[in-house]
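[Solved] Which block belongs to which protein?

Original post:
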Amino acid sequence: MLEPSRCPRHPDTETNLRCGRCEEPICPSCMVHTPVGYRCKDCARVRPPPTFDVNSVYLARGIGASVALGVAGGAIFWLLSLLLGSVAFWQAIAFAGIGYMIGEGVSIAVNRKRGRNLKLVASAGVFLAYVVSIWLLSLSGVGPSSSLFLGLIVGFYIAIRRF
């Protein structure tokens, strides 16, 4: 019978289990189940799936698309406000459309990748559209309706759901 050894990462834990590749002792909290047996975290080379592996280049592309679409969405909302006035219903619907536009645009810019960072980037674009639209509306003297904030929440939800 083998004498129990200690896990290098958790020295107070005894174990008889060893990595199938490097033969290093591993405890149950360190082991990674792979198709060829149990391995240590170094040998298992755990990586996120390619769809969720967002590097800095994709993140920069997503941020650029989010800023551009946020400014454009705010300007479009302002133009629609000048044409249609401060009607609460259409402003909420318009921000839902802006949320979809930003979410889809960022998704296309990052080659349909997904992840938490991209959710934040898309929601920041929706918030930028909100800020730009409020700023342009205050400059032109047209007031936003009270449901614009509701539209912002719906826009956040729709943009985040793309990821």
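(Second protein starts here: sequence line, then its structure tokens.)
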Amino acid sequence: MRFHPFLPAIANSVAALFLAVALSLAAGAGADPISRNIGVFGDSLGDGVYGGLYLVVKSHPEDALFHYSKVGAGLTRPDYATWFTEFTAELDRDHITNAVVMFGSNDQQSIRDENRKGYIFPTDTWKTVYRARVDAILAEFAKRDIAVVWLGLPIMRKDEMNTGATVLDDIFVAETKRPGVVFLPLIDNFKGADGGFATHLPDSAGRLRQVRADDGVHFTPYGYELIANAVYAAITAPDKTQTPVR
């Protein structure tokens, strides 16, 4: 197999995604399929992950996939209270067993608490309100014994977006350190040979493929498929306490 010359420089990046999937498949070889109801929650990034998982789950007819992610959604949005009410109703209605969550593309902005008091991103008071919302979501999953894979944010094209993404990821990391939850970081994946943002990266055969959208935030269908494969590997991994992709 001929490898692209950039591949060694990103051995801990996209290559790690392929490795995680391969290890998961090897561990599950010969095992009886387990039926799962997988729900995907989040914003436009989460919606892209849903699209990738739709393709993955087609090869696993024992599983069912539920679409709750929504373009424009976010934990700082003015309609958060309505979203949370709908969120709990969806959990009660559909009885999912696994949740995949990805927020952050719309959340680097001011936030209002339940009393309509506003806080500027990323002040400490803003972090307190945002952290409480992440905690509330995870608490609803825990009440229903739903296993969770929470996705971190990837590298962005703009430096200010990366700075904000670090703030959000720090909250996600801290809040997901609890039983039944796996945090899947993406910040070190999808980096180029120079460690910066890259639109194209080599696949497992060394061919350059476009993985990021032109806006510098979202992914191409191929990029989302890579993430979805890693997510499914995390869902099916026998040891849910491990972070499967670094």
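Accepted answer:
You had them paired correctly. Confirming on the second one: The helical segments are 14-28, 44-57, 80-94, 124-143, 159-175, 221-236.
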